[in-house]
Design goal:
There is one protein chain. By secondary structure, this protein is mostly helical. Among the domains are: 174 residues, no CATH class; 68 residues, no CATH class; 83 residues, no CATH class. The protein contains 20 helices and 2 strands. It has a two-stranded antiparallel ribbon with strand order 1-2. The N terminus is likely disordered.
Length: 652
Amino acid sequence: MKAEIASSHAWFRRIAKIPPTAVALALSFCGLTPAQIAPGPLSRAHQQLEGLTKCGSCHNFGSSTSDLKCLECHAEIRRRVDARLGFHSRAYKSSAGETDCRRCHKEHSGLGSALIRLDRRNFDHLAQTGFALAGKHLRQKCENCHAAAKIPAAARAEIKLKDLNRSFLGLRRECTACHKDPHQDQLGSDCLRCHSQDAFKPAPGFNHAGTHFPLTGLHQPVLCQKCHGPRPGQAAVRWKGLAFSGCQNCHADPHRGAFQQLKFRGSCDTCHNTNGWKNNHPGGEFNHSTTKYPLTGKHAAVACSKCHKGADFRRPIAHERCRDCHDDPHKGQFAARAAGSDCSACHEVRGFKPSRFDRAAHRQTAFPLEEKHAPLRCAECHQPEGRGAVYVSRKLICSACHADRHGGEFASTPHSNQCDHCHTPAGFQPSTFSVARHAQTQFALTGRHASIACDRCHKPLPTVGVPAPIPVTSKRVTPSGPPRQYRFASRTCNACHADPHQTKVACETCHTSEQWQPARPFDHSTTRFRIDGAHQNVKCIQCHIPSAQGSNPVAKAALKLSATSRQCFGCHAAKDAHAGEFRSGMPEEDCSHCHTTARWNGEAFDHDKARFVLDRVHRNVACAKCHKDQREVAGKMIRTYRGAPLECVKCH
């Protein structure tokens, strides 16, 4: 195809000197049409140049260097090439002449052909135009930027295309060519000096530190419009010409001119800085020690506004007492004390805690901390913990904090719950109540009682009827175990010891506290059974037989004293010579009616009290003469006395 075009052009050059009309006539004479001579029909853009007589408008047949005149017609392209602007200045090769335009623009392909052959997908915008596409520009379509609305009026006149939306010419490189300048030309047209193609905000290239007013402290997070406006009554944002010689250019004077006449001359940075108005302290030129109230301790870190309300530094401030500024956390508990008017008696300006009131100072109070009280935390006694703690509590007795281990036994006089009578702060145990002091009670410890452990006698109180213990305020003083009984309604032996004899006779009648055996001699005449006669030689155990029941060896071996029979047959039933004759039937008679304790055979029976009175003759008759009947009992003949005949004829 190129060879054909070159041959055709060579032929045109040979006939270039022939007048066009003569050429047309020659072609007609030969029977040839223009279409048969030209390479093809022109595009729609060059349609007005169609025809053999207009070929010279584009082709230069007389030149030996160039055969096209593209840049003669397209002056806008020549201007860009000469000025080295845009795509054509990089794509056009001057050494090839204007024929180089054929690389991108192809003619003679018909009315519907496109003159521009551009590979948009592989187009390197930076290398071929000198304008780098980055950030959000990479996602834009070509038509979004190359549009008629963005071509300035000065460039519109030289563009040949009627539809400027199809042209890639005329655009300026400045950002304001497409974007509205929010700074209104106050900062110049080089937007990339502060901004990037990724987004307008933030502006990574801008650093306020490079300006005449570097942003420090709390100025840094302030929005730009706070200073640059537009402010009320203003229509435009001001980026230049702002006044910033002093803080009052932007901020109102909260001190109402209080420092205008002083040596500070209204300079705010004498006392403040940009790190914060309320949290800053007086500057180096201001010395609060020169005032009536030097700032020391934690007062030095307090913001000025805490004391100088409303930033009025002229108003006098009461500062003689701590309570002039601080609330009383103790709610007037120490108001009556001599030191109560000044908190410094216990606290200092370095901090409310720790308090100067230590354990040594506590020893000077009505309740010195000693022994186990010494390591206790304040909150364990002074409750509730925290600012509402009660310090003047009047808790000077043990029962105010500690539960009553004795179940209220010592609440009445003479003890009145005065625990220190028996205990010390060193510990609840051991008690100071000794054996010697026990001798002063109604039950002196003697004999074996002196060596018995206290809990052997003082058992836990019964749960019924015992007063509830006083609530305690600390786990350290919580007692363990139930309260024990120390006061007894009865102090007899039976209060602690079981009565093995089952009698109401006082134990000390026979026994002592030294030991149980041997027992004291007992005067049996004080009982209802007087011992005389043969009984005087009888051992106690022969009448008071020990019980064979129970598992307690002491009770099992103890003599049974109560419920002992006073009748002879209570002990002599097994040796009853009458085989129970006088115990069966009525009336029942005791042996003492007939016998004495001196001896068995010494009869003491008074026959005159019987139904058969013995007269003088009968009185000397032997008993067996009348009481003749006998019966055998256990292989032994026993004489019967009851049932003897009363009639004379029975014997005579």
